[in-house]
Amino acid sequence: MLGDPGSGVHDLEITNVTLEDDGRFQCQVSPNRGQDAIRADAILTVLVKPTSVTASSTSRSPRLGLYEVGQGSQLTLRCDVTGARPAAQVQWQRNGVPVQLGGSTVFTVD
């Protein structure tokens, strides 16, 4: 424990934080005998960046990431993100411009 107990400051330092440290911590103060303890909670959420991201499709591809479909056809692209915590926010872009999608919106390529 760190801090300055003489002035009432008691610090808990967690070094090398891992997923196992994720959870609810509680500072509990025991007043005089026979009195209920006083508590304060601190919730620790450990953030983890994605370990991998892949783009794929149900369409056959001669090369990874290259998809060819005929005009008027439909193509579904999938973005798989693993290892992110909390879940990653994914944004599709076309030629560097964000694709606006929502609900049942279908993006049509001219």
Automatic annotation (TrEMBL):
Q: Which UniProt keywords apply?
A: Disulfide bond, Glycoprotein, Immunoglobulin domain, Membrane
Domain of life per record:
Eukaryota
* UniProt domain Ig-like: residue ranges: 62-110
InterPro entries with a match to the protein in the record: CD80_C2-set, Cell_adhesion_signaling, Ig-like_dom, Ig-like_dom_sf, Ig-like_fold
Coarse class of the protein's main subcellular location: membrane
Q: What's its membrane topology?
A: Single-pass type I membrane protein
What taxonomic ancestry is recorded? Answer: Eukaryota, Metazoa, Ecdysozoa, Arthropoda, Crustacea
- Protein's name in the database: Irregular chiasm C-roughest protein
Q: Per the UniProt entry, what is one GO biological process?
A: cell-cell adhesion
